[in-house]
């Protein structure tokens, strides 16, 4: 085998190993980390070629501020946790590392998390972000130890009923 082929094969094996380690980490997080449903607000990313994904802003119920403290207006940091299959938020304390909290902005009685997430949809599927009146789009997410939630699947809630997962595949 020539030295050039050997180097090419070594590079291919290295890239394959990196890809497999990332896939393994994501699968491990999905199995071991908490998960829950979170309300979404579809956002058009305003890109000329957007591909087949829906950009989702994540909305969580507003945590109550400590007694005697006014509700902050923006730039607050939240820590997410799963409670009864839904994502809830608590205000991050001064000792909470920035890597374990997310920036949020109040939006009524909800908080909009700073980074939106992309949910990729199949080429033949309809756009799930267009919902009739009375339906809310929800996304089931994995809550990693650091960083924004990772989307798993979409669901719809009609009124106060249960969340029904969408079959997009």
Automatic annotation (TrEMBL):
It comes from the Bacteria. Residues 149-169 are annotated as: Disordered. This is GDYXXLXY domain-containing protein. It comes from Cyanobium gracile UHCC 0281.
């Amino acid at each position: 085998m020539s030295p050039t082929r050997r180097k090419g094969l070594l590079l291919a094996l290295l890239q394959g190993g990196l890809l497999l380690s990332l896939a393994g980490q994501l699968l491990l997080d999905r199995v071991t980390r908490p998960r829950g449903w979170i309300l979404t607000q579809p956002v058009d990313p305003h890109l000329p070629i957007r591909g087949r994904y829906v950009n989702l802003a994540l909305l969580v119920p507003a945590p109550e501020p400590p007694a005697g403290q006014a509700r902050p207006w923006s730039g607050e940091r939240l820590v997410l946790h799963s409670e009864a299959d839904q994502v809830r938020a608590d205000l991050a304390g001064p000792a909470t590392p920035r890597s374990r909290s997310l920036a949020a902005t109040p939006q009524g009685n909800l908080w909009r998390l700073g980074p939106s997430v992309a949910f990729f949809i199949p080429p033949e599927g309809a756009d799930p972000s267009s919902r009739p009146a009375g339906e809310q789009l929800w996304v089931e997410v994995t809550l990693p130890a650091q960083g924004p939630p990772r989307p798993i699947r979409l669901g719809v809630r009609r009124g106060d009923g249960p969340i029904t997962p969408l079959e997009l595949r």
